[in-house]
Design goal:
Elements (H helix, E strand, L loop, with lengths): L1 E3 L5 H8 L4 E7 L17 E6 L25 E3 L8 H6 L5 E4 L6 E3 L2 E2 L1 H12 L3
């Protein structure tokens, strides 16, 4: 899989999709228009909805995931944006027919790109073994 965070065209996504699965990332903030995703619908395998940071890179902040209730597209998506261990219950109750998974990133790191394996294991266990 390849995860695309830039201004890639649907045509480039289609070209890449001939070789690998494609995840197109969208930065979500209060002004994000979910309809802007439709031009990619038949050119990617998944969307990833992440917090739109002021600068390039992760912000460790969570956007208002309830905006995704208005997503009516056909492309399945991953949830991202400030996911950390304390959000396990919030993720459990998040529902959407196109929701396929979560993106675990900086909330599970000792430092940039250095994942905390114990924190990941504990979170996954809590997420999957709830009562």
């Amino acid at each position: 899989m390849v995860q695309l965070h830039g201004q890639e065209s649907p045509e480039l996504c289609s070209f890449l999709r001939e070789k690998v699965k494609v995840i197109k990332v969208f930065g979500v903030d209060k002004t994000f228009n979910l309809k802007s995703t439709t031009r990619y619908d038949s050119f990617v395998d998944f969307f990833l909805f992440d917090t739109k940071p002021p600068l390039y890179g992760g912000s460790e902040h969570q956007y208002d995931w309830s905006v995704l209730s208005n997503y009516l597209g056909d492309t399945p998506f991953f949830l991202s944006g400030g996911i950390r261990p304390s959000l396990v219950n919030t993720i459990r109750i998040f529902k959407h027919s196109k929701f396929k998974g979560i993106d675990l990133n900086s909330g599970f790191e000792h430092s940039p790109s250095d994942k905390d394996i114990d924190k990941l294991k504990k979170f996954i266990e809590q997420l999957t073994n709830h009562e």
